[in-house]
Design goal:
The strands form three sheets. The protein has a five-stranded parallel beta sheet, with helices on both faces. By secondary structure, it is α/β, with parallel strands linked by helices. The protein has helices spanning about 10-25, 35-45, 60-70, 85-90, 105-120, 150-160, 170-180, 185-200, and strands spanning about 5, 25-30, 50, 75-80, 95-100, 125-130, 130-135, 140, 145-150, 170, 205-210, 215-220. Residues about 225-230 have low confidence and may be disordered. Helix 3 (about 60-70) links the parallel strand 3 and strand 4.
Length: about 230
């Protein structure tokens, strides 16, 4: 049974949506606290997020960005905001569908089913800017091609993606590579990072690994990436 997380602050609307989706055969989780929504969704690990934009805490735009930076979970925006600029902003942040309220039940259910169908088999994928990484096989999908990364490079890239652009310390990287933090082999870590950097450069990825003084490393966008952002 597919699980859908409903992110809607208006109580009656949330109840109606949840009941409608349950009757359609979906397992429903409701977000009722609108602080650290992305973290809540990460724990729920839904197959789809039904997201309102007008939330009392962090905005729906922020939530959408957080979801797409850290996962390949599809997002269907359902909102009363009917301005084109809002729709374009949501889609630019990675939203998969954009519907405005009021919306007919049949249309919403059709869009939900369509998005879920498009994402079948993609549960193991992490999404980065212009690429996807399969967490099981460490296959990188970029520029309409697929490349199987060496295991250690895949583990490092997965760790950076899971942090959503935030710095990752050396202990976390060593844990990802060797499953322990009892020792930190600086030379071995540098060798693996250098290999990943060369692979990323060879694939003309729009990101690079940068050292963060006193912390570790992070994945950052290149200063000029206009010709590297080809869509999948």
């Amino acid at each position: 049974m597919k699980r859908i997380a409903v992110v809607e602050d208006e109580g009656l609307m949330r109840e109606e949506l949840s009941e409608m989706l349950r009757k359609a055969g979906y397992d429903i989780s409701e977000i009722r606290e609108f602080v650290n929504v992305t973290d809540q969704l990460r724990k729920i690990d839904p197959d789809l997020v039904l997201l309102d934009l007008n939330l009392p805490g962090e905005s729906g735009f922020t939530v959408c960005r957080g979801i797409k930076q850290n996962s390949a979970i599809p997002v269907l925006v359902l909102t009363s905001r009917d301005q084109l600029r809002d729709e374009l902003q949501a889609l630019d942040l990675g939203a998969d569908e954009y519907l405005t309220k009021p919306c007919r039940k049949e249309r919403l259910l059709a869009r939900v089913a369509n998005v879920l169908k498009r994402y079948e088999g993609r549960g193991n994928l992490l999404e980065g800017p212009g690429f996807l990484l399969d967490r099981q096989t460490y296959t990188l999908y970029i520029h309409r091609q697929s490349v199987v990364l060496p295991r250690n490079q895949g583990k490092l890239l997965e760790t950076f993606l899971m942090r959503g652009g935030q710095p990752v310390n050396k202990e976390e990287l060593c844990l990802a590579l060797w499953g322990t933090t009892e020792f930190i082999d600086e030379n071995a870590l540098q060798v693996n990072l250098t290999r990943l950097k060369k692979t990323m450069a060879g694939l003309e990825m729009g990101q690079q690994i940068q050292a963060v003084r006193g912390i570790g490393y992070q994945l950052q966008a290149l200063a000029c990436e206009g010709n590297v952002s080809e869509k999948l």
